[in-house]
Every structure is written in structure tokens, then in C-alpha cells.
Amino acid sequence: MPLPDCRNPRTHARLKLLAAALSALPVAAHADEASPPQIVVTGTGLPDTPAAPAYDLQTIARDRLTATASGRIEDALSSVAGFQQFRRSDSRAANPSAQGVTLRALGGNASSRTLVLLDGVPMADPFFGSIPLSAIAPERLASARVTRGGGSGAFGAGAVAGTIDLASADAAQLGLLGASALVDDRGETELSGTFAPTIGSGFAVVSGRWDRGQGFWTTPSSQRVPLSVKSKYDSWSVGIRGVAPLTDTIELQARGLGFSDHRTLRFAGADSTSSGEDASLRVVGHGPWQFDVLGYIQARNFTNIVISSTSFKKTLDQHATPSTGVGGKIELRPPVGGGHVLRLGADWRNASGEGREDAYNPATGAITARRAAGGRNGDVGLFVQDDWTFGALVLTAGARADRWTISAGHLRTTTAAGVVTGDVAYPDRAGWQGSFRGGAVLTPLPGLSLRASAYTGMRQPTLNELYRTFALAATGAGSKTVITTTTRANAALRNERLRGFEAGVDVKPFPALTLSATAFDNKVLDAIANVTLASTATTITRQRFNVDAIRARGLEFGAALRVGRVGLDGSLALTDAKVEASGASAALDGKRPAQTPKIAMSATLSWHPRDDWTLAATLRHTGLQYEDDLQVDSLPPATTIDAYLEVPVAGPFAIVLRGENLTGADIVTRNQGGSIDLGTPRTLWAGIKVRVR
Questions:
Q1: pLDDT for the residue 7
Q2: Is 473 part of a structural domain of the chain?
Q3: 3-state secondary structure 517-575
Q4: DSSP 94
């Protein structure tokens, strides 16, 4: 397994920072051992406020997160209909920079419109806005809470399509020791382990995971050439987490994460890497004056090599994309009484980075240009929210004021010899933007809740969207014609702005059955999209623009049934999403955003015949999508069936069998002029799991 090169000054500095961030934990733990009062730590943030159910909230429990056919977090999150990545590929066979996450068919580009948090820390890449999904191991988590719709609380400036709040598991949930080892029918392996001892009144968690394999053919057999290869992958991640009490109501939480991911896509030599080191410290107070103070730092890097589809030589080498994210938040909940829960706070985020790449002549292999492009984005937000409970009715209202900045933008181009051919410094920009959220929950009868909410929000363009221009080449199906698609950056992009409202009902007619339905209307103004400017038989030119809006209206349904040891969980999203566009992007007006389906559904049937036994089968369906903004290249509907079986055999040991895409359905993940990529084929896994309590 590859390890970080500590001789690299940048990596060495990152590791020193990570060690410093975690160094306070043992002191607190040993201090607590010296005087052992009966203190219970939670390892979590502050609890939900009473009005949390006013929004379309769905929770995925730990048992469902860990019982997926692929063993990957995106598989578990797909049980929430409407969840989608930019493409249908999972994190074994997708370009890491394209792993944007969104909800409610508000997609269209590779940046996340959904705020993804891990223990309160935003996980998006500071440069690309993508999510490092391969570094988020489901076995480390306690739950995933998915809120569809905009947000205005802490870090709410990024929650245009919703929020996915991931919470790490504690020592009791993990057990002292846990491990698993699996192999699939292609010889690929998955190894993971956790060690979670209690230390005084606190606990520590050390975890690791390593996935590697030769991958599967993403290229259909009819389109393969001698240099076509399978989607090889090799990724690892290591996590350290600790929780210790400082007093009987205040606890310290520290977390560190290091990861590296290597992938090869389509052609030999078309390699990409994604790596990072994250660290955070958090102090949570659970007393009468509740508070949550959090600080974090992220150091990330990305590399990518593009191979010509005709000469099969290197055309682009993104040899480094170093980026850094720093931020924090302070939240206070004073005991105001009178049925009120008041939240006051501030948060801060800063993202900086630069993409460094060399362009090559695919015929001669000579460098034609060297480019460096990047900048810095910042956001400081102030927020307030009040929930007011009186009887069966809960009202909530919240507001944010964000001071956003876009600065230090630049694009520098030189020849291979270092002669400067272009040096552009883009003007700095800044401004204030407000956002609001309000709602109500009425419980007129036991088992019946009526809810409604309205909200606004904003998202800054990423550094990638602002400054990075890139080109991709592919061979059209059934011919030797090379189609080169160039996507230009746009340093003048404006912030996206959300306006939305929704209403829903949650019904529990009897204890075993829970039903929910939500109708929503969301509109993202100045939505950033890749707009086609010109198209010929051999070239496509696109540029990132703010279209007038993306509007998504639809219905979301959920159901959960428990009869004895049998469970059924289902989710369905029906969404009508349209682009509203004029001017340079007028051709998009009335069309569906790229990569967004009208229908998405998931249903999981589970059975626990005995304690620690799990049998589950999942049916998923994703409707027709379009690859491009003009709806020329389609991605057909896809229906898959997955299965999971876990059976204890002796003591702490259990046998695990998993099956992905059991029917062998063709999942088209990319279609560029007939040049196609395919998703995960039928895959069978077998292995063992160990848990020592």
C-alpha cells in the first residue's frame, strides 16, 4: 500500500499540522483518567432543534450504511431518491474531480450544489468542489442525515440543493476491534479495520481502509483499441479520531484523515490521483448554555493525464493542483426559555489553490504550453435561527448574512522554455448576500405531521469553474473521427442564488409503517452551466456561464415498514427540471439540465432472521438523462439489483457475501457523440468480517 512521502516538504508540513491538531487529545484523556467521574461523552455536535422536521429530512442509520453491495458511501446515499453525482459512475471508475454531489435534479456540472459535512466539517475539495467519496468509509459512520432543500445555518452558504450531514461512529457502535477482508470475482480486494478503545471517560478511534483492483471495462467491446484498459484503482485512507471530556458538560473532539486515490480510466497512461490530509478540532458544550466551536484545515492535491484517442500519446498533464481549505464556526444556544431554542453563530471558510498543467502536441509529444491558473475564495457568514414551540405547532425562522470574496485570480501561460506568453490577473470582487429560511411543523394527531418551509441560499463558483480551461478528445462510435471538446473557464461568474419552497406530510398510521410525501419548487438563479457555443463534426466548444435559472419542481416520497425482523425502505423522486436561459445560452431554454433524470427510485428489502444476521436486496432505477446541455447525447434508463448477506459463523467472525448489479444491466455513464463509458457490471464479493466488542 503506498504511503505519503514524508521527504516531500509539503507533505511533511501537512503531517506536522495534523499531529499538532491532535496533540491536545491525550492530555485531556489522561487528565480524565486521573479523576474518573461518571461522565458520558457523545462524540457528536449539538442536537437537532425542534423544527428540524420542518424540512425534508431523511436519516440513513448505521446498519443500512454498512450493508451495501459495493461497500461505498455513494451506494448508501443512493437510497435517498434524488441523490446523484455528476455521472453515474462510483468512486472506482470516475474522475475524482467530477464527483460533485447534488439533490433534486439541480445538477448540470461537476461541482457540488449539496453541502456535505463530516462531523460538522465541509468535505468539498477547495479547488474543484468535488467530494472525496473514496475517503469516506461507511464502516466509520454512525448515520447520514440528508436534508433536501436550501439551508441558512452554519456553513449554509454551500447548501443550495441540500445538506448531507455524516456523523462518525463512537466506540460503543464500533466495538473494540472491527475488521473485514473481501475479494470479488475479478480478484479485487477490500480491506478495512477499526480499533476503538475507551480511554477514561472518552474514547479514541483508529481506522484504515485499502481498496485496489484491476477494475472493469468501462469501454464497450466494440469501441476498444489496443491501448484500452480496465478502470484500475488503488486507494487508501487512514483516520484518527478522539473524544475526551474537559468538564462534565464540555467535550473535546479531534479528527484527522489522510487519503490517497489512484485511478486509470479508458486508456493506458490516463492516470489520475487525488490525495489529502484533513484535521479538525471541536469543543462542544452540552450544558444550559450550549455551544459548538469548530476549526479545520484541509490540504488537497489532484493530478490527471489526458491521452489522445488517436495517437494515444499524452495531450495534457495536470501534474499538480495543490489547494488548501481552512475554516471554522462558533454557535451558541443561550437558554432563553419560553418554548424558544435560539441559535446564534458565525462561520468562516477560505479556499485557495492553483492548477498547474502542461499541454502536449499529441503527434510529436512536445510541450506546447505550460499553464498555471487559480485564486482564492472566501466567505464569512453570520447566522441566527429561532424555533418556537407552543403546543402541537413549532415555528422556525433563520437568516444568514454572507460576506463573500473572490480574489487573486490569475492565469499564467509560458512556453516549454519558460517564455511568458500570457499573464492575466483577474479583478478582485466582494459583496454581501443575505439568505433566509422559515418553516412550520404541525402535529394535530399522534402519528401525523404537516410541514411547510421556504428558503433562499447562495453558492460561490469554485476556483475550477472560474479559472480552469480544459479539453477532452474522444473517438466517435463507428468511425475514426476525433471529437475534441473544449470547456473554457469564466472568471466573471456570479454567485448562484436559490429560491425555494416545499410542503409535506409524515404519517405513521400504525407503529410498523411510516410514510412521507413532499412537494417542492426550487429555483437556482444564475446557475452555472457548461454552455455549448459552437459545434462541428470534430470540435465542440463550451464555456461556463450563468444561465438565467434552473428550476426543479417535483414530488418526493418515502416509506419504511417493519414487520418483525423484516424491513422495507423505499424512496421515490419525480422531478421536472428545466433551464431558463437567454442571450448566449438561449439554446438551452426549456431543456433539462445535463445529467439529471426525471425519475429516481430506490427500494431495499431486509431480513434479520437472527441477531447479527443481515439479508438485504436493493432495487434502484434511474431514468433517462442527457450527457450534454443541448440534449443531443442520451444516457438510457438504468435499473439494477444489489444484494448483501452477513451471517455469523463462530465467535466474532461472520461471512459476508455481496452482489452488485446482479442482472448485469448496462449502465451508460458517458456518451459523447456515441463514444460511451459503462458503469459497474455484475460483481460478486465474498469475505469475512470480525467484530470484538
A1: 42
A2: yes
A3: EEEEEEEEECCEEEEEEEECCCEEEEEEEECCEEEEEEEEEEEEEEECCEEEEEEEEEE
A4: S
Residue 391: how many CB atoms within 10 A of its CB? Answer: 8
Ranges under pLDDT 50 in the chain = 1-7, 9, 11-15, 17-35, 476-479
What integer pLDDT is reported at residue 475 of this predicted model? 52
Q: Domain of 110? A: 9-185+192-417+426-692
What does the buried/exposed string (b/e) look like for 589-624 if buried means 16 or more CB atoms within 10 Å of the residue's CB?
A: eebbbbbbbbbbbbbbbbebeeeeebbbbbebbbbe
DSSP E strand boundaries for 110-152:
114-118, 121-122, 141-148
Strand partners, 263: 233, 272
Q: Report if residue 2 sits inside a domain.
A: no
Whether residue 482 is contained in a domain is answered as yes
Cβ–Cβ < 8 Å for 43, 242: no
- Please name the residue that has the C-alpha cell 467530477: 98
The residues with which 441 forms a beta bridge, in sequence order, are 394, 451
9: enclosing H helix or E strand: helix 9-22
Residue 638 is part of a domain; what is its CATH number? Answer: 2.40.170.20
Q: Minimal CA–CA distance to 326: which of 559, 595, 597, 121?
A: 121
pTM (two decimals): 0.91
- Contacts for 408 with CB less than 8 Å, ≥ 6 apart: 352, 374, 375, 376, 428
Q: What is the pLDDT of residue 25?
A: 42
Place of cell 418526493: 556
pLDDT tens figures, 83-101: 888 888 888 888 888 888 9
Sheet of strand 470-475: strand arrangement: 470-475, 482-488, 539-546, 528-535
- In sequence order, the 6+-apart residues with CB closer than 8 A to the CB of 391 are none
Digit-coded pLDDT (tens) for 262-309: 999 888 999 999 999 999 999 999 999 999 999 999 999 999 998 887
Task: Please tell me the total count of domains within the chain.
Answer: 1
CA 686 to centroid of chain Cα atoms: 27
Residue 1 in any domain: the answer is no
